[in-house]
Amino acid sequence: MSARVTRARSDRTGLITAELRLIRVHILGSAAGGGLPQWNCACVNCVAARTGKIASQTQSSIAISGDSEAVQRWFLINASPDLPRQIESMPQLQPGRDSPRSTPIAGVLLTNADIDHALGLLLLRQQETPLIVYAADQTQAALAWIDSVLARFCGIKWRKISADFQSLGGSIGFRAIELPRSVAFQFRDDTSGATALFAPSVGELTEELREAVGGSDVIIFDGTFWSDGELAIVRPGARSAREMNHLPIPDGSLDLLRQSPARRKIYTHINNTNPILMPGTRERAQVEQAGIEIAHDGLEIVL
Ligand SMILES: [Zn+2]
Ligand SMILES: [Zn+2]
């Protein structure tokens, strides 16, 4: 981005164009399913969040826009059950004042069919026109129940995703990187070529994903669990991180992100049991020493 802005500064018209067309990413929610605090959880982190010692987090979702500020349309990547609250916390996602009912939300992209990624679709049911939803065929099939509920309201217009870049409107191109039981999305600013990767559910570091991590300017990555058995500590018999399609942080992503030349590397979709949420822990220090940020709700990134 800095090269581009510098270039644009040499030319007044260019400066205006660059400033208006930058891609903006806004982290609406940074927690895994359940949020922080989770309603039925009294783990160390949930108690700390309830008592205001650490910041609360809503469930994972980002908003992205590549439009000029005058006519901003936003796409959501995953629609969490916390969506209404997230919209109220971000003025750019709220209806314009020029008509009684409107929304700048142009569509939703889904990484998979998990409840914490898809339930928010139901909460957009008052929309006048069908919701535009980009998803893999398996995700669409798994969400047939949401499809049939919404058919009585606005309905859903499903759009295909592809391994090749396609336009998402404005200057944004995007492509899907197939993973086991999920996809990651890579976004590209078609003007500058800058890229951002959003991968909140990573059960395996595939070759294609590794390449995308090595070639993206901004990486927002699965930081759900620190250890494989983390959830069983608070809920005996709970599935392991890997069984829930999340690679524990030290088992690969920590090294991969440390070595990536990306300008910003950020863990998101963090489960409330994860020790990286607590300042001062050994685990958090390891993440920070690797040059990786820990997402918080409201974090904004300009590509
Ligand atoms: Zn999730
Ligand atoms: Zn908890």
Structural account:
45% of the residues are buried. The protein has a single domain, classed as Ribonuclease Z/Hydroxyacylglutathione hydrolase-like (Metallo-beta-lactamase, Chain A), CATH 3.60.15.10. The strands form 2 sheets. Strands 6-5-4-3-2-1-14 form a 7-stranded mixed β-sheet. By secondary structure, it is of the alpha/beta class. The N terminus is likely disordered. The longest helix is centred in the first third of the chain and has 10 residues. The radius of gyration is 19 Å and the shape is globular. Bound molecules: zinc ion (2 copies). The site of one zinc ion has 8 residues, from helix 5. The site of one zinc ion has 7 residues, from helix 3.
Can you tag this structure with a few keywords?
303 residues; alpha/beta; Metallo-beta-lactamase, Chain A; seven-stranded mixed beta sheet; disordered N terminus
Total domains, how many? 1
Widest sheet: strand ordering = 6-5-4-3-2-1-14
CATH architecture: 4-Layer Sandwich
Helix content: 25-40%
List the helices and strands and how they pair.
Blueprint lengths: L1 H8 L2 H10 L2 E6 L14 H7 L10 E5 L8 E4 L5 H6 L16 E5 L5 H4 L12 E4 L2 H6 L1 H8 L4 E4 L6 E2 L4 E8 L2 E8 L5 E5 L7 H8 L3 E5 L7 H5 L18 H7 L4 E5 L13 H8 L3 E2 L5 E3 L1
The structure holds zinc ion (2 copies).
The site of one zinc ion (ZN) has 8 residues, from helix 5.
Summary, kept brief:
The protein is of the alpha/beta class.
